[in-house]
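Moderator note: this is an archived Q&A kept for reference. The question asked for a predicted structure of one protein chain; the sequence and the answer are reproduced below.
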Amino acid sequence: MLTLSEISKAYGGRVLFAGASLQVNRGDRIGLVGPNGAGKSTLFSIILGEEGADDGKIALERGIKFGFLPQESAPVGDETVLELATAITPEFVKLRRIVQAWDSDHPVEALHPEDIHDDVHNRFHELGGYRIEARAKQILAGLAFREKDFNRPSRELSGGWVMRAHLARLLVYEPDLLLLDEPTNHLDLESLLWFQEYLKGYPGAILMISHDREFLNQLVGSIVEIRSSKLIRYRGNYEDYLAQREAQAEQQLAAYKNQQREIAALQEFADRFRAKASKASQAQSKLKQIERMEKIDAPEQADAKVSFRFPQPQRSGLKVITLENIHQAYGENVVYRGMDFQAERGQRSVLVGPNGAGKSTLLKLLAGNLAPQSGTRELGHNVKAGYFSQYRVDQLDLSRTVLEEALDTPSRITEQFVRTLLGSFLFRGDDVFKRVSVLSGGEKSRLALVKLLLDPPNLLLMDEPTTHLDMSSIDALLYALEQFEGTLIFISHDVYFIRALANHVVHVTAGQLTHYPGGYQYYLDKTQQSSARAALTSGGTNGSAPKTSAAPAARPAVDRKEQKRLEAEQRQARSNQRKGAQQIVHQLEKEIQQLEAKQVELTTELEKEETYNTPGRAAAINRELVNVQHRLEVLTPEWEQAATKLAAMD
């Protein structure tokens, strides 16, 4: 279908691609990954013919239809939402205009003479006719458009809704190859779930850029990584790619270290004996052996991880925040009636439930951004609340540079620290000297996030914090929040993010709160959900989860018994986890001791002169020593992690 052969592309002195190749076949589902600036969007531009490659060939099967969804800023004119969604080709738009003019009894003379021909209706129906409109309505509904929006002028929509309309147009058009650049950025969770399921049955090939791990895991059959100016393909989904890349890197590192030790041993022999007449020829032979070797390159370093300590807030009291008997409504839409909520120090709670259930309202009530119409909100001892949502960008000083704005914090921090953190959130090099006024909405959001991390409150409330972040930035945010010693309550549709952080789940639906005192997997197990992402929008529970009504004072006795049973289960689970962790630590310590003893034994033998008298003996010892050292490098951090986990349990 599509073949890129030995493509090269450079801007100035920066090489994006050098001899890169890629084959896309019918039915392929490919995720394109790589660090920001690696060339993902440029590759799309080359495929689409918007940019030319400096070298190489692009071959496309005859008659193939392309469809492309940019990350943002798709064009919009005077058409309605439905007209935009059905604008599959210029020919179809033109024919539809003619047919609609005839159907509405407009004088045909008003049309250009070239538009008047006998087979207009036949051609219109051949291209799909009014079936296109019916299909467009179904797809628009799946993307959360309401029927009353269909005839609304497109230019009245926000940027995110315009992108949804363009996505609908592509799905109606159904091209043979669909190119998607961050297609989930502008979708709410329910629309995302619909879109994900729709793509599973999509008949064409898909090449997509996405920073959503769950989306990639659900859809793709291979990952193409841009690395070292090449396109490297891995079979499987994103998790498979991570495992394969790690295994390849370990193998390459082991081979590289093995060869370097062999070279060092040969060089040492040559240096030691080249001055001795009796062994000079042997020494020269060793040097030639080194020259003849096909050198193995050291594996590239993985993307740098954030590895510094973030400022920490003051310690709060045990009870952090309490909502009691909250009544909240928007007009006739009652969201909460007598709702109670409480969070304790150290909890990391994720709010889940269907759209419109009241998650964002609950977060705003907790933040104090929304005053309850009835009921009380009480902060605990020494609690300072901070709320992260898009409104925070309005608090930035537009006249400052990015660096100046980030440095404006009461925390004692160095410029180097701030620049490192900014780099983790995609402000690299001269980007830190940009004026805040020229930043995009996503960039302002990332800058607001950096400022929050530099001076965090001890009660942190976050609404979809991973929006506009790439994978490395999400990892940086996770690193910061894993260190965070305060209390966290957040909303997210990123399953990876939720799994990594949440130790408490609150299900919100129809004004009712149901608490699950465990991580996200515990919540899935208790609700018996088949999909980790679908569970985020579930309107009800299927399992034996503990129920917490909007007014806990009226909670039935059976719920209190169930809560006690669950707490007992949790205590037993923690005990079992500690025993398992203790056993793992002992096993790792035993193996490390054995390996260290073997390492001393091999090093001692390698230092003996007689070892080199037996051909191949030194190389064999080196190989065994490399394997021992490699195993130690793997086990030592495992032991440190296991020991830290056990200490935390104790």
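Archived answer notes: The radius of gyration is 31 Å.
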